[in-house]
Amino acid sequence: MNKVVASAEEAVAQIPDGATIMMGGFGLCGIPENLITALHRRGIKDLTVISNNAGIDDFGIGILLRSRQVRKMIATYVGENKEFERQFLTGELEVELVPQGTFAERIRAGGAGIGGFFTPTGYGTLVAEGKETRTIDGVRYVLEKPLHADFAFVKAWKGDPVGNLVYRKTARNFNPVMATAAKVTIAEVEQLVEPGAIDPDHVVTPGIFVRRILRGEKYEKRIEKRTTRKGD
Questions:
Q1: What is the mean pLDDT of residues 108-132?
Q2: Residue 232: predicted pLDDT
């Protein structure tokens, strides 16, 4: 039952070229920093990355884009990454943009075993092109299919050796749903505690969903945009 690995390098050692990976985080909050760095060092290529956004040019998923390790991005927002923009406009990177609520629900559906769902979001727009549409009780809907992945990289505040996870505040974001929607979920945590130290009522992701867990190191926790003003 002990799922602890010694390092991020060990955690990603079996990930092959061409893998599809979900990566938690919102902006730079709650991203799996150590796992992304280890993947970058391994040089794995042709990745499909499913993440809310693409980080910034020199941090988070941005370092994978810069080194041309990502073939396709499925995301909701990419406005803070100039390299992403450049690769997208030149056709070097395949991109699927998904409305944020639809993105979250597609991941949740993947984890829950739901084959698809109808949503009014995107009806009549480019988002609906090539998809089944239906009118239900006078409302027009688009059929959206679930998202699955080979691996999920999630970041939690606290975890135990059997994989139970607790997230902290905004860093919770997309991590819990992604943990359920991949064949192999790898979690990095700030605190690795003994079994039984986490109150069962506080567990957000049960250990049954987690295959490997590691204690991360040297978290930068960068701020994407810092806005300040002078005091009176």
A1: 96
A2: 65
